[in-house]
Write a structure and sequence with these properties.
Blueprint: H1 2-24, H2 29-47, H3 54-92, H4 104-154, H5 163-196, H6 200-214, H7 216-231, H8 237-266, H9 274-301, H10 315-321, H11 324-345, H12 349-379, H13 392-414, H14 417-452, H15 459-466, H16 470-498, H17 504-509, E1 517-519, E2 522-524, H18 526-554, H19 562-587, H20 592-609, H21 611-626, E3 634-637, E4 640-647, E5 651-656, E6 661-665, H22 666-671, E7 675-676, E8 684-692, H23 698-711, E9 722-728, E10 733-741, H24 747-764, H25 772-779
Antiparallel strand pairs: 1-2, 3-4, 3-7, 4-5, 5-6, 8-10, 9-10
Helix pairs in contact: 1-3, 2-3, 2-4, 3-4, 5-11, 5-12, 6-7, 6-8, 7-8, 8-9, 8-14, 9-11, 9-14, 10-12, 11-12, 12-13, 12-14, 13-14, 14-16, 18-19, 23-24
Length: 797
Amino acid sequence: MRSLRIILTALLLALTGVAFAQGTGDATPAQQIDDLRGQLDQVEKAMKADNIDDATIDDLRGNATDIAGKAQKVSAALQPNRDAAKARLDQLGPPPAAGAHEAPELAAARKDAQKAFDAVDAQIKQIDGIALEAQQTGNQLSDLRRIRFQELIAKRTHSPLSRAFWSEPATAFPRDYANMRDLVQGVRDDIAASWARGSRTALVACAIFGLLLMTGVRFYLEHRARELTANRMPPGRLRRSALIVGIALTSTLTTGLGTQLIYLGLNWNDTFSDDTNALALGIVRQVFFGAFIAGLGRALISAKRPSWRLPPLSDETALHLRRFPMLLSLSVVLFQFLHTFDRTAGSSLAATVATSSLQAVVLTVIMAVALARLSRSHRHATDGTPPPPRPVWASLFIVAAWIAIVTSWLALLTGYIAFAAFLATRVVWTVIVIAATYLAMRLVDDLFETLLSEKGPMSARAQAVFGMDPKLLDQAGVLLSGVSRLALFLFGLTAVMKGIGADATDVIALGGKLQSLEIYGVKMQPERVLTAIGMFFLGLLAVRVVKNWMSDQYLPRTDLDPGMRSSLTTLLGYVGVVIVVAIALLAMGLSVQNIAWVASALSVGIGFGLQAIVQNFISGLILLAERPVKVGDWVVLDDAEGDIRRINVRATEIQVSDRSTIIVPNSSFITKPVRNMTMSNPQGRVLIKLPMPLDTDPVVAREHMLAAMHDHASVADAPAPLVMLDNIDHTAMTFLAICYVGSPRDAGGVKSDLLFDIIARLRGANIPLLRPQDLVLRSVPSEGEAPGASTEPDSSH
């Protein structure tokens, strides 16, 4: 039986090995380990080269990350083998004590199992070491990239206002000109060789197809996109956003692929040298990117077709901005080509500095003119109407862009050319990412609005497919749209941080060189302080965006009443602000223990002077959580009676009948009796006391009162109107007329209407009402009469 278990375990190990070999390909684990070891050695060798550039560092860092990921996969694939070998050893048990007898086959099986376990364990340890080494190599490359970036942007050259700035390029011009001439001659020779080696037909065909793709095919595809969106898509906003995305993609793909075809025709037989091929491929990539910029800007601005325009831009603003996407595209392509050309030709540092200076000037001037025209068009509308307010994020970005532009100009004038060019390209890159993210967000929003919205054109079909309640389907669409927009925002934020060149952390890391200040064990480093401030303001902006989304889009699609929606939004704002403050404090270096000490210190001050404020704040949270009163309720508190308009952090606003507002501390709603007129039963009661003479027919009077209440449109049918005879004395009989209306706020107006109607009905039926003098005559007996005797009033009265 034990031998059978050993055989089964061996079969299990064999099957596991076969499964691993099938899952990882034909290579054995040992071969994969050797291959990854060789790849990592190549990365480490290339990292130590003297002439390594930034692009190579980025490629090597990506290779190191891939090696670490592959090593982790191999380790995970070997783990079942290790577990099976360990299970086999556990089944065989430990070796017997010295001198004890053991079957030879059992000892051999234990020896084989131990050998298999040691082999797999050694492979796992080896591959885990490779993964760890690859991660460390990637970190070293990141540090090297960060150091090179810091050295680059912190390097100072001559100012453009100095003579040396212009004399150095002039001195290096002969050598740079010779290098450029040699590169141009090499490109000519490569093209001539390609033409002479029998690829003329391919070159002409690729050139023709490329030009057709960039012109005729592009216009045809844009025309077809307009037809398809107008005729095949359901009506709604999705038509416009899908058309804009189609135009942007069409412009990018046709122009880029056309350039790629021309390159393939020129290099049909792979005759290009390394320099020529690198220059040509760089041009193709730059044209792709430039076409994307131009197509995206043209589609979003839509100067000639205002009905397609997605951003809230006026026609005048769109006309003022219509040329800037093409100018920006040409500038980006031109300067990227110049940098590639300088790098390929081996131009001098002076020429590279001159190119970077010109790039910083051109890009910042284009952006400054565009922002100035945008602001001027926003302030001065042609129709005289005030312009709509800008979103907060747009205003913040415009201010940040102006700061970056002015800083770039100052850095350029003081000799920090690389830093000036970095800021200029960063502003342009951020504009491109924001535009693309905005377009993607609008497309996602319109897509879910069309497919899942309760009022959308596709709602009936979606409800039939998903079989959900329309309200739930609408809420699901809003949630999916919000999640998708959040994912796109994070993707755009990551793209902005990556940007052109190094990470944004490289810029922040420059502050680490400054002197840090230590206060009670907390190091107030500039980079931590700036990070905390940035996270604080970005967190507040995020909280505001989420609150607006909740109050404007998601909550209105639920069954919650307006008061509950307002309470949830306010409570979300409080919680969000607390979380943002905590994150900012942690980013600044304060640990949880330090935050507890700060809270303890604050509690002392609260105990002395902030008791009332904290009491009202906590009371406000209780009001939002328990909701004894909510926004829209009609409450009576002391002398204040009116509608609750807002529940703030410290106090609640009550609007009274004269339209004025009373500010009541939140603690008053917790510690004092509050009468909520609309809390549980929103109906209002109308009570009319009507005294009438004793000789009045009570049945007829009751019928007239009931008829008046039944005929009024605002009187509810349930509970039914009621007329009771409340009292009879020696002066009069008193009737009580009771009915209910939809809201307590309507009770006063309905009571007035009913009184007018009842009086008119009673007088029309010749039923007299009790007059004041009747009460006097009946209550004071005349001389010679017994008390309580009735005295008829004079007819003249």
